[in-house]
Each structure stands twice: as C-alpha cells, then as structure tokens.
C-alpha cells in the first residue's frame, strides 16, 4: 500500500488516518469530504490534503470508504470508471450484505474487500479522531484476500476477523445493533414514564443509557440495511424480558457469566 484515499473523513476515517501515521505509514493520505472536515483533518494530521473523488480514486492504490452506509453505496456506484485497475476498495460500513452486493454489481476494474472496524464513540467528527481508536478492537473483513492493506490493520493494533457478509450482519445485529436499541428504549421509557428518576440516577443508569446518545442520522442506514436480522434479535430480547418475570436467579447467573467473559477478553 503506497497511497490511500479516505472518503468520508469523520471519526472513523480521521482516526484511521491518524492510526496509519502513528504506525509508520509514510505514503500520501488524501481525504474526500466536506471542506470543513478536510480543514479539520489536515489540521490534526489525519490526512495530507483534500481531493475530489475523481482525483483520489485515480491516484491512490487503496480507497477507504468511511461514510454512512447510504454514502458508501452511492460512492460504489460511481467508482468503477474512476479507479485504476487493481486498486483496492474497502469500507468501514456497519452492515455488510447491502454493501458487498452493491460492490459486486458496480465494480469491475478493481478489487473490493468489505470491512467493518468495531470501534467508535458517542460523538462524531474528525475532531474526535483518535490514533488508538482501533487498538485491541475487531476489524471484520468479508473475504480472505492477499493485500498489503491487511498488514496495516494489524499495525494499528486491530484484530482481524474474517466473516462473510451474511454472518457478519447476523452477529452485529446481536453484538451492536440490539445493545443500541436496548439503550435507546431504556432511556426513552424512563423519559416518558418516570423522568424524575434522573434526579437519583447513579452509574448504572449512566452506563446503560450511554449508547442512547447515538445519532439517528447514523443509525437510520444501519436499521434499514439490516432490518431482518435486527427484528429477529429484538423478538428474542422481548421474549427474554418477558422471561424475567419468572426464573430471575438463573437469568442473573447466565448473564453475569457472559458479561464477565466479555471483559476477560479485553
């Protein structure tokens, strides 16, 4: 990998640029984004300069799409005539099947590798970029292809995992999308039913409602492109909530063991 274009220089794109520089990447990093984001990204060192999509795709050997999912899909439809042959196009979209399918339809002159770094923050924008955002976090790829880009995933401290797009979307519905919706529902029901509970809130409520601060503008695309798997996860969660009226002790034991196992991994 000699040069990279980051299309969508927000939190993820900016953090990736910062992480590459920290890991020793010396090639040019171009950014395709709004003028405001480009200025902020150059100022913090996440990219070298801004460029049009046409220039960036035509000069860089890796194109990293880190837009919202709808933006990634739109860019995939435009890229094929712009890229050089054998350019690697990869992405950071939170769902994969719609993106992988669109890439198969739209890209003929280049290589596509679907990706999803399992990292983020409640806040958005390149100003929140962090060179260590991906350290210790899974970076999911949808195919096992040989390309130098994969070496940089390890160099920035991420853990590579290979999953096909269908299995990825099923698993993230449970590991990411369901927790977001559970947190959103909890904050919403308290706001509607007992808003005065905020006066006595302790760390438990703060912890469990942290994800509720996520932006619907970001989550809209996720919910639309993974609706089937999310619906199945929600059905199971609703059933589990109903079951809590019964054998609560067993649920605490199982849940506690799983929660401890998650923390032991980190």
Give a verbal description of the structure:
By secondary structure, the chain is of the alpha/beta class. Helix 4 (69-79) packs parallel to helix 5 (97-106). The chain folds into 2 domains: 4-163, Rossmann fold, CATH 3.40.50; 166-265, Orthogonal Bundle (6-phosphogluconate dehydrogenase C-terminal fold). The model has no long low-confidence stretch (mean pLDDT 95). 34% of the residues are buried. The protein starts with a strand and ends with a helix. The radius of gyration is 20 Å and the shape is globular. The chain is built from 11 helices and 9 strands. Strands 3-2-1-4-5-6 form a 6-stranded parallel β-sheet, sandwiched between helices. The protein has a 3-stranded mixed β-sheet with strand order 7-8-9, with helices on one face. The protein has helices at residues 11-22, 35-44, 53-59, 69-79, 97-106, 149-155, 165-193, 203-208, 216-225, 227-243, 248-265; strands at residues 4-7, 29-32, 49-50, 62-65, 88-91, 111-113, 115-117, 138-141, 159-162. Strand 5, helix 5 (97-106) and strand 6 (111-113) form a beta-alpha-beta unit.
């Amino acid at each position: 990998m000699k040069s990279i274009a980051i299309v969508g220089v927000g939190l993820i794109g900016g953090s990736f640029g910062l992480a590459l520089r920290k890991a020793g990447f010396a090639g040019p990093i171009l950014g395709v984004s709004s003028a405001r984001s480009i200025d902020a990204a150059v100022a913090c060192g996440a990219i070298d300069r801004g460029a049009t999509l046409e220039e960036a795709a035509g000069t860089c050997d890796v194109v990293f799409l880190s837009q919202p999912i709808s933006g990634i899909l739109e860019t995939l439809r435009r890229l094929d005539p712009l890229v050089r042959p054998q350019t690697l196009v990869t992405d950071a979209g939170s769902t994969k099947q719609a993106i992988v399918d669109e890439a198969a339809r739209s890209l003929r002159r280049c290589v596509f590798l679907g990706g999803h770094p399992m990292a983020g923050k409640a806040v958005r924008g390149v100003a929140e970029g962090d060179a260590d955002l991906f350290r210790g976090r899974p970076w999911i790829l949808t195919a096992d292809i040989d390309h130098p880009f994969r070496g940089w995933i390890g160099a920035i401290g991420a853990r590579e995992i290979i999953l096909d797009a269908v299995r990825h979307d099923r698993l993230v519905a449970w590991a990411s999308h369901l927790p977001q919706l559970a947190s959103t529902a909890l904050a919403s029901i308290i706001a509607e039913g007992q808003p005065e509970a905020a006066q006595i809130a302790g760390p438990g409520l703060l912890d469990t409602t942290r994800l509720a601060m996520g932006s619907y503008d970001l989550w809209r695309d996720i919910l639309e492109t993974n609706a089937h798997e999310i619906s199945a996860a929600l059905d199971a969660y609703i059933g589990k909530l109903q079951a809590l009226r019964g054998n609560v002790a067993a649920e605490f034991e199982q849940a506690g063991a799983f929660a401890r196992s998650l923390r032991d991994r980190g």
